[in-house]
């Protein structure tokens, strides 16, 4: 693509979020604004309080579930809409169901904000699609060479084997994963021939919203009426916030597992006090980030949340015009530590 022109950047960062001055619109703002373009439904990217939301149409029921009655417009992937002569469009990010990248074009200059993204096809999200641009805003959640993901099929085979072994030993398997995205990705690939699949209320509520958009096995919501004997030997999907709670004691005897990219670190499983760690992330690993950036053909890269300083330094060594920018996005740390999921389980 042509070289970026020497003028004010099309997108800039201020105390409210990523701002397009020409259109007077924000991308995934973290403070209330008049008009917000939203990449996906995770709480650090879609916040309450904006006057108007614009997002991909499959993300509309997700953010309505989380934020309540809001003014929101849904768009198709590749559909162009203009705001004050600035052209915007959404493209698949592959992160979770309904996730998007935002392409912004003005006077021949193209920027892309990736939001959160991954390159592996998880079977339920529309796969990531590289978008040609001059400047690319990328997350760096796992921007270290140490992060290298195994194929999803391999990880899910490990999870199903673990469940089968626990069932044979008379134990319940409790698998911890974020209620939006990770839980449905796990559910989609669980083997229901092993046994029954039970869900925490927060996960069941979100899965009900997403069932029209993907193929999921049958689940049973755990309520006070569900007996401990019925759960024994089954698979229980629960948010990380359930670990150590009174709710989880109903599962005894049980083993806990957690699915997260952070499980690649030896100490992470110990800190989370889980029996098994499964390395499965909805974000790119090191190579995924590099491959995606190269595919955009961009010359400028802005590195946000995660290992941004290290990743930015490497990109500059590779000849990119790379820099970092501060945001309030949290990547998979938000998925690990969120308390918003602590909905009533019945």
Automatic annotation (TrEMBL):
One GO molecular-function entry: RNA endonuclease activity
Transmembrane segment boundaries: none
Organism superkingdom: Bacteria
InterPro entries in the cross-refs: MBL (IPR050698), RibonucZ/Hydroxyglut_hydro (IPR036866), Xnuc_lig_assoc (IPR026360)
Protein name, UniProt field: Putative mRNA 3-end processing factor
Species the sequence originates in: Salinimicrobium catena
